[in-house]
Amino acid sequence: MMQDEWLDIVDENDRVVGQQWRSEVYRQGLPNFRVINAFVVNAQGQLWIPRRTAHKRIFPNGLDFSVAGHVEHGEGYDEAFARELKEELNWDLAAVSYCQLGYLSPYTDDVPAFMTVYEIQSDETPAYNSNDFSDSSWFSPSALLEQLIRETHPAKPSLAKLVQRFYLKY
Fold it and tell me: Any residues with CB less than 8 A from the CB of 13 and at least 6 apart, and which?
């Protein structure tokens, strides 16, 4: 079983005001913590989307972001992104082409936590960590959103929202 993470608790302006165990944050349904999410995007504009393993505590077997994780105590968003990228995909941040897509707040953007969203440009299918993911596929943003809306695949709830916001601007 995964070790509990010690997270920074933040106020409505994303300023650190304390710390709490991840399990307690989720038990209380708190929105005042930080996460990072990232999409791997190939030259054809397809998103690399992995499926979470069955033993995950949150959203088992669900489709996930290419990289996702909590910002742990004392980390900034970029440090958490680098750590999660290495843990989940075995990629070094210095060796990938990436950019920040946006920053979202649970108070203004209807997301479950404060989050920074990144995009990694790569045509390489990641050799992911099998403790985190069980399989993966490349999807066009519209095909992924259609499957998420139809609930063809279980998924993290914010996945559809972020695909629509950053890749399907109407």
Answer: none
Is 148 domain-assigned? yes
Which pLDDT tens digits describe the chain residue by residue (170 residues)? 457 899 999 999 999 999 999 999 989 988 899 999 999 999 999 999 999 999 988 889 999 999 999 999 999 999 999 999 999 999 999 999 999 999 999 999 999 999 999 999 999 999 999 999 999 999 999 999 999 988 877 898 899 999 999 999 75
Overall pTM > 0.90:
yes
Residue 80 lies in a domain: yes
Whether 15 and 107 have beta carbons less than 8 Å apart is answered as no
The boundaries of the domain holding residue 102 are 6-167
Query: How far apart are the C-alpha atoms of 144 and 164, rounded to whole Å?
Result: 10
Euclidean distance between CA atoms 169 and 69, whole angstroms? 25
Read off the tokens for 49.
Answer: 């989307």
Report the distance separating Cα 75 and Cα 146, nearest Å. 35
- Phi then psi for residue 126, to 5 deg, are -65, 145
35 within 8 A of 81, measured Cβ to Cβ: no
The answer as to whether 1 is a domain residue is no
| Overall domain count for the chain | 1
